[in-house]
Design goal:
By secondary structure, this protein is α+β, with helices and mostly antiparallel strands. Among the domains are: 112-352, 2-enoyl-CoA Hydratase, Chain A, domain 1, CATH 3.90.226; 464-573, Pdz3 Domain; 590-723 and 758-789, Alpha-Beta Complex (2-enoyl-CoA Hydratase, Chain A, domain 1), CATH 3.90.226.10. The protein is 31% helix and 21% strand. Helix 2 (36-55) packs across helix 10 (414-424).
Length: 790
């Protein structure tokens, strides 16, 4: 009995421990082991937020903060993505917009499924209340009905005008508008009446998320152009415009009108009638469901659990700057078209009462966007902030990247892959690696991840490098630079140039390369290798020790080295002592070489030097333009091309996503052509040019080459460039991180894209181990040999 009691006591204690542990562990398990349905719900929440954040008009009025909206209603969804929590979170976001036209429902029933009836013929009756009832359906105009004289003989000053139609017929609907509605309203108004117009966001590409708070959109550039800031920051709106002018032939303004319309009434008639109602000059009865276009454009999103979200993406603005009136009365669809129907009786009753004046709140004249938050956090961002960053990046790429087709990962389902990683990223190193994989996934060399405080890596994690660098040549990795790190001089003396690197800490080099492939931002293999061998192959924590496995003359050797601070690593790279003394890789920025060959290092000169440089090189028949590296002067390529060009020519074009709503099937591309016009200076025209390029050319560095190629029959010599062009657009991320993406597509005039491909190359120069070890400029040497052969 005692034993049984003791066992019971122990059992109860163990049960309490188990239950307590279960309570503690459950949220952690739910964060990391959410099933696919839960992931779909979290993903859908982020997608709904993206549509609201970028397209709902309320976000353009400066009253709501998109990040706060996201965080406030995410609530417990990451811990418990149940159907109830999901619906509550989405409904909470929509509720913050105070928009009666948007909703989250179990099922969306299209109004096209709801049948309405209407009169088929013209009707003219006096109602019991002495109002004139005038029915003019569109079918009455099939035989050329003309209604100019109808109102002149009206026995009443109060008129019910029934414009309901039984179906949509654009031809008859326009006749109904042109022959009756337009002349009638033109005779009522006394001055020009602007018809309601939709207002929505217009993105030419994406506004960078870190633009200044005090940006002046009317600050001209050096050429007097005030459009450049609006283009580069996406600060534009789009709307349409139409109007009606008064006519003096007939004056119908002395009558009072109540129009009966339905969803089959022609849109021109509806807009004109609602504009007249906005002037308080008529009444409106809407029979049946009101069409969306009366309030704006709406986007319907299918969500998990059979839900559908209806989200506004534009609003209708009236001439007085307000959102305008709603119909005076909306009733359910009527099948009764007699004089005793609810629609007709209600219209007659409305005419017995004075018109209620409609005064709406005057809206902003334009939609604006504010700079993104800097996401200031103390330490690691919490799970909700991490998800905000993930969804901000995903939506940005989804809506605005012109190169989304180059992403290997299915972007529509990419969130299901990344959400678990960001939920589990509860330490700085995990979060950093999740961000690395996210930004690298778009296969864009612009998408470099930067920590604005610590640089490329967090402090204490991946912030150091072993003091040597490598190159991959013929599928093998060789040591080609040994840094003069005085603290490890003795150990480094055991390394030789040309040693083959086999492994680091026992991990084969091929495995290290495979590990970094999904983590480094690159448009192509050339960009990936540049990133890998310049920074990441030997990366690790500062002062951490690593065992290096080498092969020299067929024999394997191990050496232990410590990682040094990355800034020191970069600085020491410029002080590397080569085993063989060779001429300087780069001659001065401009000089005349033996054989009267001109040399110009484009990315180290400035536009204001071009006159003097052109004068220096004027007698050179052949000129090498060394375009390698990133330019110090952002306009040097364009300006140099104007000196070289002998006629005006188009050298390339840019494609910008033209985005006015979330429906990407309606997205178009706007094209801007890059035209070079010649400068009168004759000194650089008609020479033969040789352009040097390599993997260090990216973005502006690639455009410069394209500009030169477009104005001269140059020979381009070198290696594949990085293939990342088109304005680096900033995306901010929590935890002091920033990344970028290519905001527009750059194309040659023959429609070949620069993105991923790099610039066109006529003569390829492959790396050799000898040149890499000795620091020889094999591309420059190849150009000289080609010139001397001719």
């Amino acid at each position: 009995m005692l034993l049984s009691s003791m066992n019971s006591t122990i059992y109860l204690k163990l049960l309490k421990v188990f239950l307590f542990s279960f309570i503690i562990i459950l949220p952690l398990r739910s964060l990391c082991q959410i099933n696919n349905v839960g992931l779909e719900r979290i993903s859908a929440y982020g997608k709904v937020w993206g549509v609201i954040n970028y397209f709902h008009p309320e976000m353009g009025k400066g009253k709501l903060n998109g990040d706060s909206l996201f965080l406030k209603h995410l609530s417990y969804l990451p811990e418990n993505p149940s159907a109830i929590n999901f619906k509550r979170s989405v409904a909470g976001m929509l509720g913050e917009l105070h928009d009666p036209q948007i909703s989250i429902t179990e099922k969306y029933t299209s109004t096209d499924e709801m049948k309405l009836t209407a009169r088929k013929q013209y009707a003219y009756h006096l109602l019991p209340g002495k109002q004139l009832y005038l029915a003019l359906p569109q079918t009455a105009f099939a035989k050329g009905l003309n209604t100019d004289s109808i109102l002149r003989r009206s026995p009443s000053q109060k008129i019910v005008v029934d414009l309901r139609n039984a179906d949509l017929n654009n031809d008859l609907g326009l006749k109904q508008y042109k022959r009756f509605v337009q002349p009638l309203i033109a005779g009522i108004i006394h001055d020009m009446m602007l018809l309601p117009t939709e207002r929505s966001f217009f993105y030419k590409g994406l506004m960078r998320q870190d633009f200044p708070q005090d940006i002046n959109l009317f600050d001209p550039d050096k050429d007097g152009n005030v459009d450049h800031l609006q283009v580069h920051n996406g600060l534009r709106n789009v709307s349409e415009g139409a109007y009606l002018l008064p006519v003096d032939v007939e004056n119908y303004s002395s009558y009072r009108y109540c129009f009966i319309i339905n969803r089959f009434t022609n849109i021109n008639s509806v807009k004109a009638i609602m504009a007249l109602r906005n002037r308080n000059r008529c009444l409106v009865v809407f029979d049946g469901p009101v069409p969306d276009y009366l309030y704006g454009t709406f986007y319907y999103m299918n969500l998990p659990d059979g839900l559908v979200a209806k989200i506004r993406t534009s609003e209708v603005i009236y001439e007085d700057g307000t959102l305008g009136p709603a119909p005076d009365l909306v009733i359910s669809g009527q099948s009764d078209t007699t004089l005793h129907s609810l629609s007709v009786v209600s219209a007659g009753n409305l005419l017995k009462m004075p018109i209620k004046l409609k005064h709406g709140h005057v809206e902003n004249t334009v939609l604006v966007r504010k700079p993104s938050n800097k996401y200031a956090t103390n330490g690691m961002p919490g799970v909700n902030l991490r998800l905000l960053g993930l969804f901000n990046f995903w939506n940005t790429i989804h809506f605005f990247s012109p190169n989304k087709n180059l992403i290997a990962l299915d972007w529509d389902t990419a969130l299901l892959h990344f959400i678990p990683k960001f939920l589990a990223a509860d330490h700085e190193d995990k979060y950093f690696m999740a961000l690395m994989e996210l930004t690298a996934s778009i296969k864009d060399g612009h998408a470099i991840l930067i920590n604005t405080v610590t640089g490329r890596s967090p402090s204490g994690f991946m912030d150091g490098n072993l003091p040597f660098a490598c190159d991959q040549i013929d599928d093998k990795v060789y040591i080609t630079s040994i840094m003069p790190d005085s603290a490890q001089h003795a150990i480094l003396s055991q390394l030789n140039y040309g040693d083959e690197l086999i492994a680091i800490d026992g991990l084969p080099v091929r495995s290290i390369i495979n590990k970094w492939e999904p983590l480094l931002p690159a448009s192509n293999a050339a960009g990936f290798k540049r990133e890998l061998y310049a920074t990441w192959l030997t990366a690790g924590a500062v002062n951490s020790e690593a065992k290096i496995t080498l092969v020299r003359n067929g024999r394997q050797k191990n050496i232990n080295l410590k990682r040094i601070n990355r800034n020191d690593y970069y600085n020491l790279w410029g002080k590397v002592i080569r085993p063989v003394s060779v001429p300087a890789i780069f001659p001065p920025v401009c000089r005349i070489l033996d054989g009267n060959i001109g040399y110009l290092r484009m990315n180290r000169i400035y536009t204001n030097q071009l006159d003097s440089l052109a004068n220096l090189l004027r007698d050179c028949k052949k000129i090498i333009v060394d375009a390698r590296g990133y330019p110090r002067d952002g306009s040097i390529g364009t300006n140099l091309a104007t000196y070289i060009a002998s006629k005006t020519d188009t050298v390339s074009y840019d494609e910008f996503p033209f985005v006015t709503g979330p429906n990407l099937s309606k997205r178009q591309m706007m094209i801007d052509y890059s035209v070079i016009a010649p400068k009168p200076n004759p000194n650089l025209k008609h020479q033969q040019y040789y352009i040097l390029v390599d993997e260090g050319n990216q973005s502006q560095g690639e455009w410069n080459i394209i500009a030169l190629q477009g104005v001269t029959k140059a020979v381009t010599i070198g290696r594949t460039t990085a293939g990342a062009n088109g304005m680096a657009v900033t995306v901010t991320l929590p935890g002091n991180y920033t990344t970028f993406f290519s905001g527009f597509g750059e194309y040659y005039t023959d429609h070949i894209p620069n993105q991923k491909n790099g610039v066109k190359i006529d003569i390829e120069v492959k790396k050799t181990l000898k040149a890499a070890i000795n620091g020889e400029d094999d591309i420059f040497n190849k150009a000289l040999s080609i010139i001397k052969e001719k």
